[in-house]
Predict the structure.
Amino acid sequence: MHYNTCNMETKKNIAFVDFKEFFISLGCFSIHQVKVWNEKFDRNNLRRWEKQGKLIRLRQGFYTFPTVTEHGDAPFYFANKIYAPSYISLESALSFHGIIPEGVIQITSVTARKTKIFQNNLGSYIYRSIKPDLMFGYTIQQSTLSHRWSIMMASPEKALLDYLYLNPHYDSKQDMLELRFDSDFMHAELNIEVLDEYLEKFQSKILEVRVRRLKEVYL
């Protein structure tokens, strides 16, 4: 993306309408992107516009516009952007794929960076840490927000493995039953070959035991 300036934009206090016209297409943006666009930009503008309800702060240094949040998959898109590299997984991905029956209020992701939680007006964004070589098994999905935006979402198989890997207290057959995974999905839609292929990449004997118990209960 090219960042061009004009005479008006070089002023410290630019008009919000011009600012929004440029950045709305990004969905969400960082202060770094703003500074690249206009190195003389006064970040006090962001604080003022946030107080006026014209901007929503997603985390320190990241913002979006209220109209963007009206789209259903906006939280997933924001999650990918405000703490990268990461992809949607765990409870959020399991709910998205219909593996667990209830909706999830928190947005859960996995990342190669350290574990992190961000709270904002839209809710909680939780990131669980995994090894860099386990950052696989996600698809790039087109956002309903814009054809230019995409969302990284764990496949059903990878979401299950991420969940069992990061929640070792789910270990016995009874534990697996208490997870209440959707039986129809597990029987008809879960790709066992992909599950086993991904499992091998974890190189974890303990996880293999948990997956075996999962299969005994649901497959």
Q: What stands out?
A: The CA atoms of residues 30 and 94 lie 29 Å apart. Residues 1-12 have pLDDT under 50 and may be disordered. The first strand starts at residue 28 and ends at 30.
